[in-house]
Amino acid sequence: MTTSFSHLSLAEPLARAVAEMGYESMTPIQAQAIPVVLTGKDVMGAAQTGTGKTAAFSLPLLQRLLKHENSSTSPARHPVRALVLLPTRELADQVAQQIKLYAKYTNLRSAVVFGGMDMKPQTAELKRGVEVLVATPGRLLDHIEAKNAVLNQVEYVVLDEADRMLDIGFLPDLQRILSYLPKQRTTLLFSATFSPEIKRLAGSYLQDPVTIEVARSNATASTVAQHFYGVNDDNKRHALHQVLRRHGIKQAFVFVNSKLGCARLARALDHDGLKTAALHGDKSQDERLKALDAFKKGEVDLLVCTDVAARGLDIKDVPAVFNMDIPFNAEDYVHRIGRTGRAGASGLAVSFVGGSNDARLVAEIEKLINKKIEVEALEFDEDRPRGRINDGRRMYNREGQDPRQAAENQGRERDRERERDRRPQQRAHGAPRDPFFDQPYQAPSLSPDAAPAWEAAAKAAPAARAISSNIKPKRKVAALFKAAQPVVS
Ligand code: AMP
Q: Model-level pTM?
């Protein structure tokens, strides 16, 4: 199978946009799905975000809509022809921005509607007429009820991240939306897994779909050092501080399993003096976009988030990922830690194992990534016998740094600087010039000497840290369970 875009016979405006994006060859999902979608067949695709899935459905869809392209200002000449449904606001925005880039040399209009934002500007855009409408289900229903969106001329519907939509409980909304669409249409369904629920959904709404499965990447990059530490819930925050300081980490994703846990942890870390933002479903749209933007600019050190809020976001190359909770789905573990250790850079993935179900969840991860996981004991600094290491005074308790630690940190910082310098050239070929979500992650432009916020916080209040009610400094934390061999990377 050829992987060059030039073999697709894309219309010139689309081919030009693709060339401008710097895409050299098709990704596997693109190579398989684009020719099928171009024929107008239904597709059931197993592919995750990050595989180039958006272009896989939107390029052929735009190509087929070109016959409707016109420059008339009349809204009647621009009915909704394609509907793309996604589970979260961030994903909807990200996909809409990509579609805008692919369609930029055509007269096809696109728009995005999602909740948490004023309906008025969305209404005005819908009333002007759009051919491609990207939406989250709830807000789309609001617009349908307000008669802002008329869907009787829809020819294509894309159910993207369908498994997540079902997880969130969007099935009734989806069923209602699909009932407004013409029966004669092409339906494309993308999902990370083909669970029985997804198969039922496909059975009800797809006709003779072509199944496309790209080899799922369950592999974790060898550049990511994975550590699992046995830490009980009360000590996890302390453990996080400790690993951050020990590794001189300046920015990290911190994953938790629940919205409530996310909000609580972010507040607590903020209280500890770290620049922290939370990303979860209960945050307003504005807060979520601001949090992401601040993290990308390096104004925020820790982005504490849930899987649903963070899934698919195009933020990569973060120095470290923490799993405060072991994810319920082993696949989410692969997603989470895939945000670090990209492009040959070394990354750190630290998971805290402490919940009652964690042994089972870790075993599932072990099976998925096909690597033995050893749960290590995390020795807290306060536990170290005084006089053995630095006279018992750790780096963050001193005015100056421990020279060995400082040299190690400097070495790491130099590596990171080198990586930072290399990154723009590597990305120039592959990444779009998306103004927001598709901006590649850039490490903050901190001076190499700048201490991470947690060091400053620790220096500022070492006593408070030691006597925090959440911290039991004298306690050694034992491994919850043992495995024969260490993680093989
Ligand atoms: P997606 O899975 O659609 O969210 O795409 C993930 C990232 O891959 C986005 O930043 C896209 O711009 C980028 N991308 C998509 N297709 C290609 C391609 N053929 N070559 C290089 N980058 C791509």
A: 0.59
